[in-house]
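Problem: given the chain below (227 residues), write out its structure.
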Amino acid sequence: MDTRQFEPIVEMTNVGLAYGDNPPVLKNIDFAFRRGSIHFLTGKSGAGKTSLLSMLYLAQKPTEGTLKVFGNNVSMTDRDTLSFLRRRIGVVFQDFRLLEHLSVFDNVALPLRLRGMKEKEIRHRVIELLAWVELSDNMYTKSSEISGGEKQRAAIARAVINRPELLLADEPTGNVDSDIAAKLMKLFAELNRLGTTVVIATHSNELMERYNYPRLKLENGGLSYVK
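Solution.
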């Protein structure tokens, strides 16, 4: 039996994060995300949501405690291994981080091309997903020429095209209307049903009330369940 399926996909033990000599943004976080779970992450502006997500994405290491992702102690893992682990993670950034000289199609296809997937399969997957997020008409438009809401959808498509084991979404419905938001949440739910662990950072009480997923709250540097 493969016991890895029972291990947390992310495990934090007394995790803290500080920038330089400033007071810690995060401190004494003890939490584990089990495989196949889905959570909302909330908290006031400046509470540390983006900082926590950046650690989960392996963009930075904790300054205190132990963070394990896919069973790997991040602080003791070399750069090449961290780069490989990142390929198993999908991220929706608040600032999109699209390559604006590339078309929407090429942005979304990029993770699959990095995997070495055949172009025929890439085309099939990308076209199908862009239809789902209602970007078929902008498929070959440069990312610099589309609206903020369209960039948001393109960024989400790029994050999920690789069917990641862990999906981190920072305010994923912040720039889209309610109909598109519902469609995106359905996409996240379907990925979760297929086994992806999903963490959705949001300020939207309406969104959290509509979808009754467990809520985690960042407050005073700590992380806890909302009752």
